[in-house]
Design brief:
With about 350 residues, the chain is an alpha/beta fold. The protein is about 35% helix and about 20% strand. Strands 1, 2, 3, 4, 5, 6, 7, 8, 9, 10 and 11 form an eleven-stranded mixed sheet that branches.
């Protein structure tokens, strides 16, 4: 997805604050002094976003933390009576899947004018707020014990020495894992069959398919596995938190990127509050809530601040993909993974 990252000029990072009552609360229809949003990044980022928006706007913000796949499933279950007003974060492919189901509605924020075109839906259903590179997050102590070097290609993850030493989330719940699945589609000239075949081969090396996309990095940090397939910003966060034995590497076949998006939920109970929230998330000030919780993805606002912990994309080979095609294929492809890969016996 090179074209979605090359013009990024800054790093999205945020500071840690506690937030009381982060789960959804009942609200009166038409009352726009509050909102509840789905939040797909890590918990501490979600807490700060809610707290700082409330401070900036006077609107009481609550959130429910859901991974990308969980968010689509929950929105689908709610149908025309959603419990949420906006969706913050998670890959744009998830927002596209939600759009396909009629779960989000078109909204072009005024502040979207500041955001480069490659980070925006041309039809106005979502706007990008950050981007992140998919990586391998390796525990060098574990790998040294089993005689394996940190992987630098997808083929390296098929090494029999890594049996039960790889962790990845399930693509049905995690946008991170779906990014990995779609990477294989891209590397195999669009063949979904080839992508499923690759993960069938890797299956015996996977200790566990987690629900959260960042959990495999924590597993690697604790020494439960040798390698976690996660976004580079999450691996860097864990390194900075004390897991100094972790090492980030990128596949030589080419790195792919998630564009994290924000969107307006269709039939939101608090649409005006939601629109103000979306406008705020696109500002440099919001994206500069930076490094205190270590979200080292690239922000989309060119005026946001770069930190030393960001990925220097100029050093990477980048794969160029189509976010819309990725989003439209999500439901079918994750269903196939659930049927054909995850339940298979491990040799």
């Amino acid at each position: 997805m090179g074209r979605y990252i090359k013009k990024a000029a800054a790093l999205f990072a945020v500071g840690a604050l506690a937030l009381t009552g982060c789960s959804a609360t009942a609200a009166t229809s038409g009352d726009d002094d509050s909102l509840t949003f789905v939040c797909s990044p890590q918990e501490d980022w979600c807490q700060l976003v809610a707290a700082e928006f409330t401070k900036a706007s006077g609107i009481n913000a609550n959130y429910v933390r859901l991974s990308g796949g969980e968010a689509v499933a929950r929105l689908t279950a709610a149908g025309e009576t959603p419990e949420f007003d906006a969706w913050f974060g998670g890959g744009a492919d998830g927002h596209i899947a939600a759009e396909e189901e009629g779960l989000i509605e078109k909204f072009v924020p005024e502040n979207a004018a500041q955001i480069p075109e490659e980070y925006k839906d041309p039809d106005g259903f979502w706007t990008g707020i950050y981007a992140g590179a998919l990586s391998f997050c390796s525990n060098t102590d574990v790998l040294n014990k089993i005689g394996v070097v940190a992987p630098e290609s997808w083929n390296d993850l098929l090494d029999p020495k890594l049996k039960k030493n790889v962790a990845m989330a399930h693509p049905g719940t995690s946008g991170t894992a779906y990014q990995a699945v779609w990477t294989q589609v891209m590397l195999n000239d669009g063949s979904q069959d080839a992508a499923i075949d690759y993960f069938t081969k890797m299956h015996s090396n996977v200790l566990q398919y987690s629900k959260s996309g960042s959990a495999p990095g924590q597993m690697a940090g604790r020494g439960e596995v040798g390698v976690g397939v996660i976004f580079a910003q999450d691996c860097q966060k864990f390194i900075n938190e004390g897991f100094t034995q972790l090492k980030t590497t990128f596949p030589k076949e080419g790195a792919t990127f998630e564009v994290g998006a924000v969107s307006l939920i269709k039939n939101a109970k608090h649409p005006e509050a939601a629109k103000k929230f979306i406008e705020w998330t696109l500002t440099a000030e919001a994206q500069d809530l930076a490094a205190t919780v270590g979200s080292y993805s690239l922000p989309t606002n060119p005026d946001a601040v770069i930190t030393d912990d960001m990925v220097d994309t100029s050093t990477l080979k980048l794969l160029d993909g189509d976010i819309r095609e990725m989003g439209e294929a999500r439901n079918e492809l994750t269903s196939r993974f659930d049927r054909e890969v995850a339940p298979a016996p491990k040799s």
